[in-house]
Amino acid sequence: MNEFTAEVLDEPGLMFADGEDSIDPRVGLMKYGPRTPSGKSEHQVINVGYIGSGRSLGGLEKLFKDMELAITADEDKSKRWKPPFPGLGERSPLNFTFNTQKRWRQTITRGEIRDLKQIRSRKDRLEEAVEIIKINLEVLYAKETPPDVVFIAIPEAMWDACTPSHQDHARMQSETSDFHNRIKLLGMEVGLPTQLMQPKTLRGEGVQDKSEIAWNIAVGTLYKAQRGHPWKLTELEDGTCFAGISFYKERGGDQSRTRTAMAQVFLETGENFILRGDPVEGEKHGPGNNHLAEDDAKQLVKKILRHYRSHKKTEPRRLVLHKRSEFWEEEREGFIKGAGNIELMDFVTVRERHPVRALSSGIYPALRGTMVSAPNNEEHYLYTKGYIPALSTYPASNIPEPIVVKPDPEVSDSSPQKLCREMLAFTKLDWNTSDFCTKLPVTIGISDAVGNILAEAEAQNTSLDIHYYHYM
């Protein structure tokens, strides 16, 4: 082979209530309704707890009220690939209702805000803000019937007091800690999934219009509240264990130490869980990347397979590992030894950018699903973003870039087409958004966000939950 080749892969399908399928998350939800724990199209009532000041809770309650009815996109943001939010309730195709009773309403008082603002150090102000939320979460958890999910409407004054003024994209954080990450850890401790709402979101400011916000809240809340996915892939090979591996640095203590950030594991049933690796003592560093020593790689794969067996009650026939960096020899040997007698294995490097571009002959960019293979067939350039025939458009303004899919030269039992089809499918399994797809497969794409939570010093003493809904 001495030239580039290209082909277009089929769009992966998604399964909704009663086993009905569609390729578009929003279309599927509106036509068939979300999948439920029983798999049937039954109406769900989601008990919602909410924490905030009188003003921020007022904004949140208004948003909940608006979501009871259909919400159309702002005129200047209205696009044919962004259908109106259909509303909630028994007549809604989304088939669920928010139950917001006063007993699940926790108010942050003006006195608490006043006392927080008087604290000199931003670091100490952040700690006080975390403590305020912690107390209110514990009160909600102690209710005879606790809520299914808790919304935290961050008061404007609390936000301003804990946000560095010099940041372009502000976050509530200090030099050593981040408010969002700390709250996620608190939610795990008490067993309540949380949803943080920034003041600008409650004011209706920002890139997303109210219809988009409502869609994403609805999908995220469904996933968190029912502890399960609103949709699943129609085809994901039976007997395969998929895992994305990434790294992060712990905050505090020895900053030179890196821990395996996580292995995010997916089963063909649609279940997924997050595993924190043991401290990495023998890590290897390449240019901008991290690699595992042989024994660390071996132990991590063993941990992945233990959890697979506990869920499936059997060994997988195939193991697929996704990683941002290439597989070094020592690392590869560790993964192989940890996998034991698994029959088939695919180790795949996934990178977000490459200068290679595919140009179409028309006015639109390359089709989503376009797979371009390099002349040596060692790596492939997959357009996970691009023109989508089902939407009759390319839903973005920038020129799409392909991701790089590079099968390991030593461990790759599947065809490049199969590996890329799986990558394409995993771009449709982030339940933190209702968009048609994301650019990166979720095995890799959410690793930074999860790693940031695991990096918090408090995470080292927290009994971490393995479910993604606690991290999103």
From TrEMBL:
Coiled-coil regions, chain positions: 116-143
Alphabetical keyword list: Coiled coil
InterPro entries cross-referenced by the UniProt entry: RNaseH-like_sf, RNaseH_sf
MF-aspect GO terms: nucleic acid binding
SUPFAM superfamilies, per the entry: Ribonuclease H-like
Protein name: Piwi domain-containing protein
UniProt organism field: Halorubrum hochstenium ATCC 700873
